[in-house]
């Protein structure tokens, strides 16, 4: 059975575990390198990207996750997870480190502070999805290998990129795990299963 880990250092871990379980995969929290070894893919949840960065170093997961991603492990990041998968971060702390993998520039807290959090619909791969934005980033630049999967459809941020995919890596600026809509998680599960088929 496909096993997908959720990086369980900080953030909305439980919600991602629940959404993945509804997608007929085995979902496990990952806090140690040995637990990372036992999963086929990894979700990096929303939370606080600088805290996740520091805790990944403390729990000796930063380099192992970078290595697995470089070797082709599928990964999905939501909100802070999007920042952690970015090759470049604007408005981050000088000592902030990421896992990288997606050739993109992301701006932290682009939509504003906690009090500016909001719900809206976004266009995700041709579907209209409910989306929750909490101190969310957006993507300011994508490299040639990055496919834009979603944009904000209305308001002052209309047109801003909020979902991308590069190879086996997927990232969204919003939190699908908070809406009960499983389409983003199902998309990622399909990506993971296809990666497994391709690797055989």
UniProtKB/TrEMBL annotation:
The keyword Cytoplasm does not apply. It comes from the Bacteria. One of its GO terms (cellular component) is cytosol. GO terms for biological process: L-glutamine catabolic process; pyridoxal phosphate biosynthetic process; pyridoxine metabolic process. L-glutamine binds at residues 47-49, 108, 134-135. Transmembrane segments: none annotated. Keywords: Glutamine amidotransferase, Hydrolase, Lyase, Pyridoxal phosphate. Its EC number is 4.3.3.6, 3.5.1.2. The keyword Lipid metabolism does not apply. It catalyses: L-glutamine + H2O = L-glutamate + NH4(+); aldehydo-D-ribose 5-phosphate + D-glyceraldehyde 3-phosphate + L-glutamine = pyridoxal 5'-phosphate + L-glutamate + phosphate + 3 H2O + H(+). The active site is at residues 79, 175, 177. It holds the Pfam family SNO. Pathway: Cofactor biosynthesis; pyridoxal 5'-phosphate biosynthesis. Belongs to the glutaminase PdxT/SNO family. Catalyzes the hydrolysis of glutamine to glutamate and ammonia as part of the biosynthesis of pyridoxal 5'-phosphate. The resulting ammonia molecule is channeled to the active site of PdxS. NCBIfam families: PLP_synth_Pdx2 (TIGR03800). In the presence of PdxS, forms a dodecamer of heterodimers. Only shows activity in the heterodimer. This is Pyridoxal 5'-phosphate synthase subunit PdxT. It comes from Spirilliplanes yamanashiensis. The gene is pdxT.
